[in-house]
Each structure stands twice: as structure tokens, then as C-alpha cells.
Write a structure and sequence with these properties.
The protein has a single domain, classed as 3-Layer(aba) Sandwich (Rossmann fold), CATH 3.40.50.1000. It is about 35% helix and about 15% strand. Strands 3-2-1-4-5-6 form a 6-stranded parallel sheet, with helices on both faces. Strand 1, helix 1 and strand 2 form a beta-alpha-beta unit. Helix 1 packs parallel to helix 6. The radius of gyration is 15 Å and the shape is globular. Bound molecules: magnesium ion.
């Protein structure tokens, strides 16, 4: 049986986005993150996969080790809600600093979603992409996923841009609790 997944952007979606987050001590989860993720994984059975652009690495502001330390700490903070992210995928490149070839992993490219789907035997038709940026919604669409824009992080600005482009996500949520409520309703009958 293939798995279903909720693909998640990290900064501005699960946690506050201070820009180029490199210090685990600066990681602040949003209040709804642990509870929403626990329900998605432990009750509804979704894999939880983070797909993140971390161009701070190409820019020389942060390192792979720092990104990995933040990711480890994120899972540590989620222990209180008895849940963990199954895998973190990130693209360290940026077109101003890296080759075009390297940048193929960068959202809105669906490359890392496809990689995760192959690694975890994920059925994209029954899966979702959740994020606060235009590139998250476009990545989800490019991968054939249902898309949810969350209005934390850059979500308000992203919503204005998407509206102007008449390029709407499947759903717009104020926070991860509304994301959870939408997925709960949406996946009834599909499982
Ligand atoms: Mg974000």
C-alpha cells in the first residue's frame, strides 16, 4: 500500500521565520504545530515530509550542519506532542550563487517532492503540500498535489500575489489547525 503524505515547508509554516535560521536556539514553533502534526500522523496516518529552500547555504550565511542542527531540534521540540517529521529535504542552492543544474532542486521545482515520494512510496494523488510562500504552492501544483497556503510567515503577502495571478491553492488556512481541519474533511471517503 502506498503512503499518503503531507509535504510541509519549514520556515513560516511550522516555525517563525527569522531569515536564514541557523541556530537551534532561535527555533520557535508556532503554537499549533505539534498538535496539528500529531493528529495528521498519529490519527490520520500521513507521512510528514519537510521540503525547504535553504539558500542561506549557497549565500555563505549558514552551513549544512546548522540546517541539520535546526531540523534535529525541531524534532526534539515535537517530542512533547509525540510526533516527529519523517524526513527533511532541502535545497541549499540559489541561482545567484549556484549553477542552473544545481538549482533544479529549488522550489517551485517539484524535484525534492518526487525524490521523497520515491523514497517513501508516496501516492501524490492523496497527498498535500502546505506552505506560506508562492513557491510552495507552485511546487505543490508542479508535483500534482493538493495545495494549502497557510497565512503564517509570508502567507498574507503570498495570498495577495496568488490572487492577482488568479493562481489559487486548493485551500487557504489561517494556521496549521485550519490546515488539519481541511485535510480531515477532505480525506474522508478517500481512505
Ligand atoms: Mg516558508
Amino acid at each position: 500500500m502506498p503512503n499518503s503524505a503531507v509535504f510541509l515547508d519549514r520556515d513560516g509554516t511550522l516555525n517563525e521565520d527569522p531569515g536564514y535560521l541557523g541556530d537551534p536556539d532561535d527555533l520557535k514553533l508556532y503554537p499549533a504545530t505539534g498538535k496539528a502534526l500529531a493528529y495528521l500522523k498519529n490519527i490520520l496516518g500521513f507521512k510528514l515530509i519537510v521540503i525547504s529552500n535553504q539558500s542561506g547555504i549557497a549565500r555563505g550565511i549558514i552551513t549544512d550542519e546548522m540546517v541539520n542542527a535546526v531540523n534535529l531540534h525541531l524534532n526534539k521540540l515535537l517530542e512533547i506532542d509525540n510526533v516527529k517529521i519523517d524526513a527533511f529535504y532541502y535545497c541549499p542552492f540559489h541561482p545567484d550563487f549556484s549553477s542552473e543544474e544545481d538549482c533544479t532542486c529549488r522550489k517551485p521545482s517539484p524535484e525534492l517532492v518526487f525524490k521523497a515520494a520515491s523514497d517513501f512510496n508516496i501516492d501524490l494523488n492523496s497527498s498535500y503540500f502546505v506552505g506560506d510562500a508562492v513557491s510552495d504552492i507552485e511546487c505543490g501544483k508542479n508535483a500534482g498535489l493538493k495545495t494549502i497556503l497557510v497565512k503564517t510567515g509570508y502567507g498574507e503577502d503570498s495570498f495577495s500575489i496568488l490572487k492577482k495571478q488568479n493562481n489559487f491553492p486548493t485551500f487557504v488556512a489561517q494556521n496549521l489547525i485550519e490546515v488539519l481541519d481541511f485535510i480531515k474533511k477532505d480525506c474522508i471517503g478517500e481512505k
